[in-house]
Write a structure and sequence with these properties.
- Helix content is about 40%, strand content about 15%.
- The chain is built from five helices and six strands.
- It starts with a helix and ends with a strand.
């Protein structure tokens, strides 16, 4: 009888661990799927709440959400996933001029500080940066707290995002936090 109990215990332990592993994997996938839906809502809100005109489209294309599991980036939800048009070109270097008849987001051109209609002169950042690529690079470089099993990190990594928000008074991402109070702990970079 002792041998039968020993064999039965071994198999039930194996069955338990196999079932537990399947439940754990299923839970992880369901959680990541729900976080992807949440990330989509965060971006939808960010696009709806923004109040700036995008000249090249790089800033808005740099909006992205990284989904992390135990400190590792597992998914990125960005502009391409949301059907946002690609930027017309990489970002402008300081002093570089861009002649256009319409801005990226289809707003009629207005005279710039230099008074030239249809011309925009870059003044912040290194230039030659693609917004979508900048978002992915930023999310890969960020390491959330490992003690958090799941994390969402929202980025708008274009160098001039702070300038657009702080110096020009336009909302880049802060309205997302106000519009989505159900997200208690979220990291914006």
């Amino acid at each position: 009888m002792a041998v039968l109990k020993s064999v039965h215990g071994k198999y039930s332990d194996q069955l338990f661990f196999r079932l537990f592993r399947n439940v754990k994997e299923y839970t992880k996938e369901m959680m990541l799927e729900n976080m992807e839906k949440m990330a989509t809502e965060v971006l939808r809100t960010a696009y709806a709440e923004r109040d700036f005109i995008s000249v090249t489209g790089n800033l808005i294309n740099s909006f992205a959400v990284g989904i992390y599991y135990r400190g590792e980036l597992v998914r990125v939800v960005g502009a391409a996933d949301m059907g946002i048009e690609k930027p017309v070109r990489v970002s402008l270097s300081p002093g570089e001029k861009l002649s256009v008849t319409r801005w990226w987001d289809d707003v009629p051109v207005f005279p710039t500080k230099s008074g030239e209609p249809g011309k925009y002169i870059g003044n912040i950042g290194p230039g030659r940066v693609d917004g979508r690529q900048a978002a992915i690079q930023k999310l890969k470089s960020v390491k959330p707290w490992k003690r958090d099993t799941y994390s969402l990190i929202v980025v708008a990594p274009m160098v001039y995002a702070d300038y657009v928000q702080d110096k020009m008074g336009h909302d880049v991402l802060t309205s997302v936090r106000d519009a989505m109070p159900q997200i208690e702990k979220i990291c914006y970079i």
